[in-house]
Amino acid sequence: MTLVYIGATLLLLLFLGVPVAFSLAGLGAALLAIKGLPMAMVAQNLQGALDSFVLLSVPLFLLMSNILLKGGVGRDLFEAMQKWVGHWPGGLGVAALLSCGLFSAISGSSVATAATVGTVAIPEMTKRGYSKGFTLGLLAAGGTLGILIPPSIPLIVYGVITEESIGKLFLAGVGPGLLLILLFGIYTVLYALVSKTQQRMAKATGPERTKATWRALPTVALAVLILGGIYSGAFTPTEASAVGVAYAFLLTAFFLRTLSLKAFFEAVKQTLSTTIVLFLIVIGAKIFGKAITIYQIPAMISELVDVHFASVDGFMLVVTGILLVLGLFLESLSMLLIMVPVLYPTVLSLGIDPIWFGIFFVILIEVALITPPVGLNLFVIQAIAKTPLGVVAKGVFPFIVLMMFAVVLVYIFPGIVMWLPSVL
Fold this sequence. Notes:
By secondary structure, this protein is mainly alpha-helical. It has one domain (about 1-424). The chain is built from 20 helices and no strands. Helix 1 (about 1-15) runs antiparallel to helix 2 (about 20-35), helix 5 packs across helix 6 and helix 16 runs antiparallel to helix 17 (about 355-370).
């Protein structure tokens, strides 16, 4: 019954509108107090939650993505993709999708990806006859690639929680990320062929493609620098984030000359605001995680699984159901910080590869980014397009189906996730 009481209390706090960070920290502190443990443990966990060199990369990756967003690099990426695939059926949609994939390989943030590419792609696509619902759904779903394709902030946090290799997690995210781009791209082309409302662009000339590619090349080079540096061992993910910030600033402020001093300070302010929220959630989750460990909640869940869901199939089905329900009410990082410490011991006891499970988990919390009523990407795209939330939610539904299909494929064919980490 202890498990039920704790779970019900946490859900009640969340439904009452108490911020996630304070719900977790408050309930954790209360549970420790009920046990008669000293409140000094709260202070110790508060300090220990952020005592991680790897976590330093989170605000740095956020700052890098915000600098790139304010510097308008999304326009260069989208323009280059347009020149190469714009004449295809659904070419502008495919160009937007590829731009999301490239920016995801730089930013690690779904919101930044959706905002950066959406700002330039939405007006162009609607002008060319793409329905507003499809356009907004595509950009909201494309933005979710930001938390799967490395460098991914949720994968960094997952690695910190589980003490798994962040480099391997990054490699594992590449295959599923490309799979989602492929599925979204096929749907985009088929949609264009069936609807026949889009105006196809004229095929770009060689010089036009060359000019646009050279303009976007420095931004693409940033992705190569970050990921190449990490995988070659030249620097750690944290060092890569610092290198990325410096490169992004030099690129936008001096090379492209698209970043003003005012825009830079806005990027810093936005990064500070987001970092505070994220780290408060991390602190709250650390306190809550300590409390549920003392109350042996992970052991209780493992016992429940052994009794009722002895197979891996049953456990993964339950995990999928829980995450889909939680995704209706919680944003992605909160789900990760609440559920991973609870589920991880059972994952190990069932012999599930923790790297594979991390990717499976992240794909499912990607769905949370585009499911109402709290899907962050829905609100980002809604704000850019200045349209009712219902239009975005309706347009994103086919992409949710495709993401769940990707979950099934990753489960049936684990090599989609594990092949690259196994060979590098």
